[in-house]
Amino acid sequence: MTSDTRAHVRITPTHLADGRELFYFDDSEPYVSGAATRRLDDPRPLPDRFAPDEDGHVPAGPELRRDPLTGEWIAMAAHRMNRTFLPPADANPLAPARPGATYQDGEIPADAYDVVVFENRFPSLMRVPGVTDEVALQDGEELWQTRPAAGRCEVVCFSSDPTASLRTVSPQRMRTIIEAWAHRTEALNATEGIEQVFAFENRGKEIGVTLHHPHGQIYALPYLAPRTAAMLATAQEHRAATGRLLGRDVLEAELRHGARVVLESEHWVAYVPFAARWPVEVHLVPRRDVPDLPALTDDERADLATTYLELLRRLDLFFVDDETAIPLPYISGWHQAPARQGRDDWRLSLQIFSVLRAPGKLKYLAGVESGVAAWVSDTTPERIANRLKELA
Questions:
Q1: Is CATH 3.30.428.10 the classification given to domain 4-223?
Q2: DSSP assignment of 160-198, as one string?
Q3: What percent of the chain has pLDDT over 70?
Q4: Were 46 and a residue from 18, 131, 269, 272 both cysteine, which residue would form a disulfide, CB within 3.0 to 4.6 Å?
Q5: Sequence ranges of the domains in the chain
Q6: Which residues are catalytic, by number?
Q7: pTM
């Protein structure tokens, strides 16, 4: 075990009983100074996840199959069918261990923590030692291409308090979470075979959250996701036609017109995009051209901590029912530069959006949206922006 300290955060790695990695990100004493260390051993009798069975067979990881009609890779992770689903409070796997307990089947051994990142117990993507990441043909059919889903899925716990949310953490804790995102992005980008790192959060039962404890996820993909590939291709076409960075041009256009800009700070700008798809959608971008979270300076990270929390505050006031604000169900995700291609054509951005279109009413994708991705908005970006400006 080794620790490192950066930006007033101490990072301490360890391993869980089945071999998965876990990282403590501490910003409180006595841990941040190194005067004390979180619990590093995992007392659970979990077998090594890669240990051969009685017949000598190594557990198979999830598989990728290429859709012959679109060229997209689809992960087949059948083991996730029985993953944890809305457990009772006394069986929350993301809660800290109970003080004095000799054993409980939770993922975090310590009885308190600030921020924790660990490998998902039920991953959609996982590299299995000894399995080569090569394309093979299923049943010898040329169109049926398969390959190991040799990526990585991590869970980020924002707080040890199961009743908290990302919006309710302190600016200091938000800063620690940003450090965790940046640290894991840098490490995963450097991992062999990884093409893209996507850090995201799902919040709310309407989104389909299966654990209400405040947490997010980080996916390290062994391919470029379709939306990322499309965004990169568009940015490269723009560069070829104009010699300029598309993300910079979009930001400057929004700032010039101002109608959809909802929040500005020294280092960050939030705006509702010109062609917003969702009933509520906001993009948060840095003023400086940077490709990903690791490239942010300390000042930009500190400013992001307070700016992000202010944006979440407004979003949680967006809808009101009977004079009561409705906590917004949302998905937020960091669109970062691919690990190995097109980094000079990319500009970091956070997209946060909600499927809630009115109190008690969700936006369900219509046939034309689900079937051929032809989007239809139920509102206008300007209306979304005006509402967020009212809440300043």
A1: yes
A2: S-TT--GGGS-HHHHHHHHHHHHHHHHHHHTSTT--EEE
A3: 95
A4: 18
A5: 4-223, 227-390
A6: 215
A7: 0.95
